[in-house]
Amino acid sequence: MTFTIAIDGPAAAGKGTLSRQIAEAYGFHHLDTGLTYRATAKALIDAGLPLDDETVAEKMARDVELAGLDRAVLSAHAIGEAASKIAVMPAVRRALVEAQRAFSLREPGTVLDGRDIGTVVCPDAPVKLYVTASPEVRAKRRYDEIVGNGLPADYQAIFEDVKKRDERDMGRADSPLRPADDAHLLDTSEMSIEAAFQAAKSLIDAALIKKI
Question: What is the pTM of this model?
Answer without folding.
Answer: 0.92
